[in-house]
Amino acid sequence: MANLIDITFPETEQPSADPIAQKKELIQLRHPDKAHKPDNPVQRKKPDWIRAKAPTSDGYKNTHNIMRNLNLTTVCEEAACPNIGECWSKKHATMMIMGGTCTRACSFCNIATGKPDALDKFEPQRVAIAVMELGLKHVVITSVDRDDLEDGGAEHFVKTISRIRAMAPDTTIEILTPDFRRKEESIDTVAKARPDVFNHNLETVPRLYPKIRPGARYFASLRLLQRVKEVDPTIFTKSGIMVGLGETKEEVLQVMDDMRAANVDFLTIGQYLQPTVKHAAVDRFVTPEEFETYATIARAKGFLLVSSTPMTRSSYHADDDFNALRANREAQFKAAE
Q1: How far is CA 76 from CA 112, 187, 188, in A?
Q2: How many CB atoms lie within 10 A of CB 79?
Q3: What is the pLDDT of residues 191-209, one digit of tens each?
């Protein structure tokens, strides 16, 4: 959850002095759709393997300043990523375009929901400037869902990719897109811009979609990943799921098979962590040994790269992972000669 000090209340709506009331007001502000749902108590005591470094380094502060000075939103902050301290200390920030308000209300996600603002036509330029100032060799660009836009924001992705290519031509680009549901032509639009990596997360197993990802459809997301490869087979495709939501091992293995059938190159698996009492509850904390078992099985199924650890997130170590992806593909090509 975002810090209370990051939220500006109108003068007539000053927050309560009671910390519990403040949290409730913050949930109402960010998640009005969830505010009246029953509470799911957050498990404060987490296993020893769930650990994150506090964001205190000079590198973190410098990254924070660049994001604020350029008026950019990051998924690192909005989604309350536990790896923000480590990543920002290395100047690795995942920028979230098209605003900080999502038109969906997924029960796992901490991003604010509501009616988004109009697109900022200068945002692609500011993103490109940030890439230059951070000196990024590899950048991850994601977005909120924009069901209110005719193309779901596809052209805004294209403009952002174009500006980065113009201003930082040596930087490789990874995008993490929404599903463009009922806007299938938007998939082609973004794929034809030829990002180096096209990521779209399935998030969970199909049985849990009505509860966890009610605004999406599992097979529509699979079709998106498959379509990217049809448009340009050279683009790396990537997808991820969370575990600890009540899925079974058999269901996870079926998702792996479905991804491979769609020719997905890179699989990420991480532990779901509950943002607030109004979000889906953690069913269990999956052990590191189970994550390693998933990784071993996924590699055997043919993924070029697998990241499966409790702290894995979509863009965690994305720069190193991209280098590994390229190396693994080259090795695969040489082996086939």
Answers
A1: 13, 24, 27
A2: 20
A3: 999 999 999 999 999 999 9
Whether the predicted pLDDT of 172 surpasses 70 = yes
What are the pLDDT digits (tens) for 20-51? 555 555 555 666 777 677 788 888 788 999 87
**Strands across the sheet containing 197-199:** 95-97, 138-143, 172-176, 197-199, 236-243, 266-271, 305-308
Q: How confident is the model at residue 5 (pLDDT cuts 50, 70, 90)?
A: very low
Q: Is 70 exposed, middle or buried (0-12, 13-18, 19+ CB in 10 A)?
A: middle
Decide if 225 contacts 200 (C-beta within 8 A).
yes
Write out the DSSP string of 92-112. Answer: ---EEES-SEES---TT--SE
Q: Is residue 197 within 8 Å of residue 238, measured between CB atoms? A: yes
Q: Cα–Cα distance between 277 and 40 in angstroms, integer?
A: 5
Q: Which two tokens stand for residue 137?
A: 């060799």
In terms of Cα–Cα distance, which of 221, 307, 319 is closest to 268?
307
Mean pLDDT of the chain: 89
* The dihedral sign for the CA sequence 178, 181, 183, 185: positive
pTM of the prediction?
0.88
Quote the CA–CA distance of 198 and 220 in Å, as a whole number.
16
Helix axes 218-231, 184-191, angle to 10 degrees: 40
User: Is the CB of residue 227 less than 8 Å from the CB of residue 191?
Assistant: yes
Encode pLDDT of 121-169 as tens digits: 999 999 999 999 999 999 999 999 999 999 999 999 999 999 999 999 9
Q: Which two tokens stand for residue 312?
A: 């894995």
